[in-house]
């Protein structure tokens, strides 16, 4: 059995939002993927450090994070980091999906998170799905 894991960074200034995202996605979103290992980030500095260091395979960003939301952060990361890892943005309203598209996110989740949709979205992004995925 493989001990390989995929490292996922989950960013929100609110610990309960990070926990909700981690719980919804789970430790193994699909049988054909490696087990997920989560890194929680509460500050933009933590996200920038991990993304710039290349230590994470995927970022899940809270679109409502304060003082800077995940959508603006996603756009910054995609513009500034060569070979930026894929990014999933979690938004509160379905109407905010267009902003997540502007942010260059690879996929969008809409709260309240459906565990099946969240796991499927993350699995599709990890497999390299080329088209933006919107679940919610």
UniProtKB/TrEMBL annotation:
Residue stretches making up the Response regulatory domain? 7-126
Q: Give the source's domain of life in one word.
A: Bacteria
Q: Which InterPro entries match?
A: CheY-like_superfamily, Sig_transdc_resp-reg_receiver
4-aspartylphosphate: modified positions: 62
Q: What is this protein called?
A: Response regulatory domain-containing protein
State the organism named in the record: Lentzea kristufekii
Which PROSITE patterns does this one have?
Answer: RESPONSE_REGULATORY
UniProt keyword terms in alphabetical order:
Phosphoprotein
